């Protein structure tokens, strides 16, 4: 089966981690151990976020006036190299062959997101120490950047070609590099869940998996009435969405991206934690979403 | 025909340039204009150096203590993303499809280069302002890092797969990320000419082209007796090498890499400038090296 797996920020960089190379590589190894069997028997694309890494890189860019700063699209490309390399290193230990592809994603340059930056990146601060910072999830202030909707994964045909040849493909890192139709870069960070969902449709994946920090999708998350969802349809899930069950910037984009995948022809999406991914694919854990 | 083209540092970042995104993208566009016809009628891999970019990135890493520095192998991966994206953007303007592949290169961890750093990276300084700096080509002091010999291009099979599917492949950036056989990264920068030559053999290219800042290989370069070489054999070239005709860190590694390619079964290598690359492939310019 062809499977697209989106690795959430927490899977690759635990909360509180500084983001050292050792931490990132170690996290990547933990992830690959959990999915090794799956990688060996399926065509798999791994996608990943880049929020902490691109934010860190941006700070470093601004740390010296000796050499020029790169714009955000270029920083996105650089974090794809960085994180992709960590994942590829982890996959090497299994004996499997992987390919890390720098991936561009076409967006609409008139997307209203460009006038309204909402995507938090980089470290948390106690106060808004720079312009364009906002409180993120009650944990502190973070820099926010525009996050336009992905329209087309430019490299989807190369990804399919590599899957057919038996490579584990690492792609669409950080949601992909935002470009105009003509290839020109745009300063933004695309939501990786949306971009992954689009990719899954474009490569006609049979299954889309969102790996996150919790085992399931929950209703009334964090309340005494909290309860998990094991299987659900997109119609029911849409109602839960409208009732405000899912947190912005956290579970909500995953639920929306899962619905989009199924609505666009995908068969099944799963939301689960990395430790229950095997059971989730066997239908014994996680939250499965279908038509 | 399958062609591997190594783009020299000067082709992508003119001497004296600061290394801004605009400069790099503009240079990439100039390069692609010269090779557009070739890209349309051949299977082409483009490789490139990363000396200025990886040096700049290293300085930026050290510019703030807020976030952790990445080691040199990770910085190499990041510059592959950066420079590959610039070249991919330029190729997009031709309507061709490209794939930028993060490329790792196995080296011997016992390579004596690790005890003797020789590869200059980053900006030039008037004095040795940091440890491990040396005078480079009389132009100033630069940081030097180990430069081990490439043993195996880990991603050569993915590169071949993408070439067969019609993609222009951008790979082995900065000579590739140096790794041990088990995939573990090593802090070094591989010579991109050597790595490109090895790739050309591994993907069984019919032609290997080194694009540099001069039109030809010259004997007595810069002297009143300077004369260009149009065609030559590896045996003759080896004699010139021994007589010290070619500058260290400049023409010498290209000549050595061209010889290695032909000795390892390659048919023809060419050394030329970007402006005469078309004529060089037609046998009307540049320096052609064969058995």
Percent of residues in β-strands of chain A: 25-35%
The chain pair forming the largest interface, with residue counts per chain, is: A-B, 55 and 54 residues
Q: Main β-sheet of chain A, in a few words?
A: 8 strands, mixed
Strand order of the largest sheet of chain A: 3-9-2-1-11-15-16-14
The CATH class of one domain in chain A is identified as Alpha Beta
How many DSSP-defined strands of chain A? 16
What is this structure's SSE topology?
2 copies of one chain form a homodimer.
Chain A: E1 2-7, H1 9-12, H2 21-41, E2 43-48, H3 51-61, H4 72-92, E3 98-102, E4 104-107, E5 119-125, E6 133-136, E7 140-145, E8 150-153, H5 156-164, E9 168-170, E10 177-179, H6 192-202, E11 207-212, E12 217-219, E13 227-229, E14 231-233, H7 234-242, H8 251-263, E15 268-273, H9 277-281, E16 287-290
Parallel strand pairs in A: 1-2, 1-11, 2-9, 3-9, 4-10, 11-15, 14-16
Antiparallel strand pairs in A: 4-8, 5-7, 6-7, 12-13, 15-16
